[in-house]
Design brief:
The complex is a heterodimer. By secondary structure, chain A is an alpha/beta fold. Helix content of chain A is 39%, strand content 15%. Chain B starts with 8 loop residues before the first strand and ends with a strand. In chain B, helix 3 packs antiparallel against helix 4. The chains are: A alpha/beta, B alpha+beta.
């Protein structure tokens, strides 16, 4: 994760020992030291004013600051500030010190470093690059920014979309209206226009299909769980509606069908209109999941009772585990059952 | 009654109290999982999917719509209604024909009774004819009503579907984020003595502000502890130790994490 270095790197020779004192903590000392190092001839009262602007409260006098300056050998000679030419030049061998006094979402920064260490975005960038390369020969006349992006640009823009929910940004316009730490997180900030354009261009190259392999881990579990998630959508255009209700109204929207493996890893997602019932496309969906992940046993959240569904799965040599609809049986008397196990709580299986 | 061509195997859980739960699986499931394990495998779905959806809604923007494009196509609602009405009309037509036939037959019987001078039987047949006439009228009325509904549907309409491409990309983003957070939590929890949830870590560490100091040899992150109660501060201190133990690095430099007490 690149740090937003605002100054050229310096050497470590002059790195001061920042031991928290009674009046100033380490962070405050580091900030003062940084300001002094940038301009050793700066009067102490100006330094204090600059520190106050950076929202780090410091309650020390000019006298105390002068003591610190003397200790660090960053004090200026007595009298009025001299000519610029006479000011002491900053030694080329300064400490590498970069202070960000106010950093929001610290944990997200740490998480980003961890992801960077794990090379968590490498598969994503590889998938996007692959999709771009696959798009070029089929659409030779297409010339938009995405096809010319470097891997670094792809990475940063995808990271901006990736970290957005953790920064409290849900919609892309939130990048314009919310204060966010993308500058310190990624080394540069983004506005919604850039990311909307990026998302639109990802759509053009059909990145969704290309990104699915990035979801699949090296070791997939034995079982895939499949469930649907519906989101309402507001539109003035007449749209197909489904079992999405808000305030008692049936709404238009979308139906995401998401598969997780038995370790909880998200594996696959596909969207369908809300008026289509899961049973109409579940076999095709499971075929796609099996093709992408190799998992062939599915657990579905439906009180399905269709023998036809069981036959369709059996025909594909897929496993399907469901619950039987409560209306389809009258308890134990509906079955010729053999007792396999009686549990401690008296439950019979 | 067992069906010969039914591939399903059933596992029934009859608790001492409460309703009986019936699970079914195909032979492949039976070959993969012990039947006694089916209820547990099915129950895990709640944590793996339903709770995961809740988490993704909470911190992964799963419930956000992306993209406004729509694809105009045939009105499937109308098609379904029309199919349903066509079937009903067909059935109503058959019923009208059948009732008409019955009325004709009964009319012939009434004429026969009248010509033969039947007394009581004529009355019976006339009563039956009245009932059949009523049934025919009802059937014709129903048919007319259905035809009216069918004509009221009008010409085939158009209705829009969302273009899901952007939405799918962003949902994959959310799934990638959730997968990464889970993996991060596994590593972090490995360094902690206390069990702590992802939600707690998000509130306690991810959303907190602080300070960063980068030197030539290390990067130090300070997390503000302002406003934290003592138990949460202790927990945060433990989490910070755990984060330090994870050996995080930034551009090769070790990352240290510290707590920072700010004046209120």
């Amino acid at each position: 994760m690149p740090l937003a270095l605002s100054k050229p790197p310096l050497t470590a020779s002059a790195s001061p020992p920042f031991e928290a004192g009674r009046k100033l903590g380490t962070v405050e000392m580091a900030l003062v030291w940084k300001l002094l190092h940038e301009d050793p001839a700066c009067p102490s009262r100006v330094v204090l004013a600059k520190v106050a602007q950076s929202q780090v409260p410091i309650a020390v006098s000019v006298r105390h600051l002068n003591r610190l300056r003397a200790k660090w050998h960053l004090n200026r000679r007595k009298g009025r500030p001299g000519q610029t030419a006479l000011s002491r030049p900053v030694g080329s061998g300064g400490a590498v010190l970069q202070v960000t006094p106010h950093l929001s979402c610290v944990g997200v920064h740490l998480f980003a470093h961890w992801l960077d260490q794990q090379e968590g975005f490498a598969p994503v960038v590889a998938c996007l690059r692959q999709a771009i390369e696959a798009h070029k020969p089929t659409h030779p006349d297409d010339d938009f920014a995405l096809v010319h992006h470097r891997d670094q640009t792809l990475l940063r823009r995808f990271q901006a979309l990736f970290f957005a929910p953790l920064l409290g940004i849900e919609t892309l316009t939130g990048f314009d209206t919310h204060e966010h730490p993308l500058q310190t997180l990624l080394g540069r900030g983004y506005h919604s226009a850039t990311l909307t354009q990026f998302l639109g261009q990802l759509e053009r190259i059909d990145a969704a299909g290309a990104l699915i392999p990035a979801l699949v881990p090296q070791q997939v579990g034995q079982i895939a769980y499949v469930d649907g998630h519906m989101i309402a959508y507001w539109s003035r255009v007449p749209m197909h509606k489904g079992k999405i209700t808000m305030l008692g109204r049936i709404m238009a929207g979308s139906q995401a069908v998401i598969a997780h493996d038995d370790t909880g890893q998200g594996l696959f997602v596909e969207y369908h209109p809300p008026d289509r019932h899961l049973s109409q496309f579940i076999v095709d969906y499971c075929q796609k999941v099996a093709l992408a992940t190799g998992v062939a046993v599915f657990v579905i959240d439906r009180a399905a009772n269709a023998v036809a569904l069981a036959r369709a799965f059996e025909h594909q040599d897929f496993g399907l585990l469901c619950m039987l609809d409560d209306n389809e049986h009258y308890g134990l008397e509906s079955f010729e059952a053999t007792l396999e196990e009686t549990r401690k709580d008296g439950t019979k299986v | 009654m067992p069906r010969a061509d039914d591939p399903r195997h059933f596992v029934i859980v009859a608790p001492a109290e409460g309703k009986t739960l019936v699970y079914w699986g195909t032979p492949r499931v039976k070959a993969t999982l012990e039947p006694t394990a089916w209820p547990q495998v099915y129950r895990e779905r709640s944590e793996l999917q339903e709770n995961s959806f809740k988490r993704m809604i909470d911190h992964g923007a799963l419930n956000t719509n992306y993209g406004r494009k729509k694809i105009i196509g045939a009105d499937r609602h109308q098609q379904r209604v029309r199919e349903h009405l066509d079937q009903a009309l067909e059935a109503a037509q058959k019923r009208v024909e059948k009732q008409g036939q019955k009325v004709k037959t009964q009319q012939a019987k009434v004429v026969e009774s009248a010509s033969k001078g039947h007394g009581k039987r004529l009355e019976q047949r006339q009563r039956t004819l009245a009932v059949l006439d009523k049934a025919l009228t009802d059937a014709q009325h129903k048919q007319a009503r259905l035809a009216e509904h069918a004509s009221a549907l009008g010409p085939p309409g158009k209705r829009a579907d969302r273009d899901f491409r952007k939405q799918t990309i962003m949902t994959i983003r959310t799934l990638l984020l959730e997968n990464a957070l889970r993996a991060f939590m596994v590593v972090l929890l490995g360094t902690l003595q206390t069990q702590v949830s992802l939600e707690c870590i998000l509130r306690l560490v991810f959303e907190r502000s602080g300070t960063r100091i980068g030197t030539s040899s290390e990067v130090v992150y300070w997390i503000n502890t302002t406003g934290l109660s003592l138990p949460y501060r202790r927990l945060l201190a433990e989490v910070v130790e755990g984060l330090c133990a994870m050996d995080l690095r930034a551009q090769g430099k070790p990352i240290r994490v510290r707590l920072r007490d700010m004046p209120p």
